Each structure stands twice: as structure tokens, then as C-alpha cells.
Fold this protein.
Amino acid sequence: MIAVQAKVNFADTDMMGVAHHANYFRWFEMGRVEYLRKAGILLLDLMAQDIVFPITDVNCKYLSSAYFDDEIIIETQMIDLSRIKMIFSYRIVRKSDGKLLAQGTTQNVFTNSQGQVKRMPAKYYDPLYDFFVNDLNASKLETINSG
């Protein structure tokens, strides 16, 4: 699991100072991009190889509101990976009190720029898979040790 910190900006909120629901999907993307970066996968490198990964499924359960100026933590974990798709889970947590604000998942399918499904080449898949397995094992160990 990787964690990214962000701040709820005024432009992210409605007239009541509450973060608009669409921002959670942007925050999910921030976590997903950082997860890939930590695995050594850069989006611009993939795009240069005509590999993109549109979202084919997304969900978010809103549990509590984020407000203007809140510092949030975007927890991101890959939960499934194959050469044609990846699935991530997310938790958005308010830093000040640890309150879980939202949780969700996304599924991305690897395609070319014309939208045709494309298997991810080993050059990218292998390091991503290694990172995924190591991250998953570390999370399982953390769960065992905290239980």
C-alpha cells in the first residue's frame, strides 16, 4: 500500500465547504499514478509505447465529508493484476483524526490509443508484478502482526 498526502483546496469544495464528490475520483487517480511510479512505471513511458489504461469500472462509497483545508491521505493498493488489466482499492482518510472518508476501487484495462486491448509487455509488466506481489505480502504481514 502506498500513501499520498493531499490538501482539499477551496476549488474542490461546494458553497458549504464540502469536497465535491467528483474529487474523490481525482484523488484515486493521484494514488494510482503514484503507485505505478513507485513500481518504476512512468505514464509517459507507457504512452510513448502506445499503452494507455482507461478505467472500465469505478466505484466509491462515501462515508464522511472532506472539507476545505483538510489534509487527506490517499491509501492505494493494487488488488489484482494481469497483462490486460489492473484493479486498485483506495481509502481516503482525514489526516487530523484518521477518519475514513471514502473507499473505492477502479479497474483499468490496457489498450492502445485506438482502444484495442493490448497485453502489457514484459518490460513493464514484470517490475509492476514484482512490486504488486511484494506490496501484497507486506500488507498481509502487517495485518498478521497487528492482529
